[in-house]
Amino acid sequence: MSSAVSQESTRRRLTPQQAETVARLADAAVEVLNADGFDGLTVRAVAKRAGVAPATAYTYFSSKSHLVAEVFWRRLADGVPAPDPDLAPADRVAQVLRGVSMVVAGEGQLGGAVTVALLGADPDVEHLRLRVGGFIRQRLAQALDVDPADPGPVVDALEMLYAGGLVHAGMGHLTYEQTSERLVAAARLLLTDQPVLDQEVR
């Protein structure tokens, strides 16, 4: 990976060699997930597939949930660019929601694993969960041209939409493609009724 995300992890700033090791572990985690599912995933199995010593893998990842959460964070940060300022606000929101909901589309069992992993109590997972939430909030705030530190009730409602949608997709109730389109449709309804929403929430 070429982005700044590849040079960091939950625990430390990475040298180029360390970043390459973490990238190999992340790629191997997806391969193990697709072969054995989340139940069969272990840090040790991922290390073996990546050609990395288990002790080395554990210096970067405290648990399999931490590893899966890191995979999701990296794909999210690399795959959801800032919204296009030339688009209308509703279209910018649609761009962000489509990007977020399609990050793990077509990735076999990764989506379901992410849903489980991000609910974990591991402190490293909690850190990444906050980082993921902050990143998506920033992108939605950019789409609506509001302050990410105080984005208001519309961004709050959009966050509830995407969180529920991704849980549904992760549980297999909807495909990520279906989730993407339903999220966009719901967001357009919400934005159409934005003055009413502002009045009711405040």
TrEMBL record:
<dbReference type="InterPro" id="IPR009057">
    <property type="entry name" value="Homeodomain-like_sf"/>
</dbReference>
<feature type="DNA-binding region" description="H-T-H motif">
    <location>
        <begin position="42"/>
        <end position="61"/>
    </location>
</feature>
<protein>
    <submittedName>
        <fullName>TetR/AcrR family transcriptional regulator</fullName>
    </submittedName>
</protein>
<feature type="domain" description="HTH tetR-type">
    <location>
        <begin position="19"/>
        <end position="79"/>
    </location>
</feature>
<keyword id="KW-0805">Transcription regulation</keyword>
<dbReference type="InterPro" id="IPR001647">
    <property type="entry name" value="HTH_TetR"/>
</dbReference>
<keyword id="KW-0804">Transcription</keyword>
<dbReference type="InterPro" id="IPR050109">
    <property type="entry name" value="HTH-type_TetR-like_transc_reg"/>
</dbReference>
<dbReference type="Pfam" id="PF00440">
    <property type="entry name" value="TetR_N"/>
</dbReference>
<dbReference type="InterPro" id="IPR023772">
    <property type="entry name" value="DNA-bd_HTH_TetR-type_CS"/>
</dbReference>
<keyword id="KW-0238">DNA-binding</keyword>
